[in-house]
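QA checklist item 7 of 12: single-chain prediction sanity check.
[x] sequence parsed
[x] length recorded as 190
[x] structure emitted
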Amino acid sequence: MKLRVIVVSSLFALASQSMAHQLFYAGTFSGSQENPASGSLGTGGALVIIDLDLATMRLRGNFSGLTGNTTASHIHVAATAGLNGGVATQTPSFSGFPLGVKSGVYDHTFDMSLASSYNPAYITANGGTVGTALQAFLLGLAEGRAYWNIHSTTTTSGEIRANLTAVPEPSSVAVIGMGAVALLARRRKV
């Protein structure tokens, strides 16, 4: 009975945490994720935080070791995970993204209710409105079809890429962890 209370309490805590209406997607930049692989030894990390209440997208990323200087960066959405797709976000590059460098850090929040946060062709191809473009973009992220690409002077089609996958929000991970600890403690007593 006590175990059941702990499990139910953990599930309610998890449900209340998920009410935050934020979605988290992460990836690791590498040349091997490019299609075809670029051979670049560049690396880095990518985090995309979607706030559904505010209709914002915060991008946090870092990269280093590029063979060429950066020329552009944006998020693509493919028809199938792992394949190449069209640019969904700002073109030719994100506002304020460090260009002309081989390493850098980026942290910027976009208002996804504005047409300026998207590639105009992406809006047109996905229903013609910002609302339908946002829905298509969120679906691409949820289905693992989106990737953050960094283009350079040596690899104009993309030197490094981070395939974006959903990750639990940090507070949910803590709640799940507490529930697992409680289950393990209970099993050891039995």
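[x] summary fact logged: Helices lie at 2-18, 120-125, 130-142, 170-189.
[ ] second reviewer sign-off
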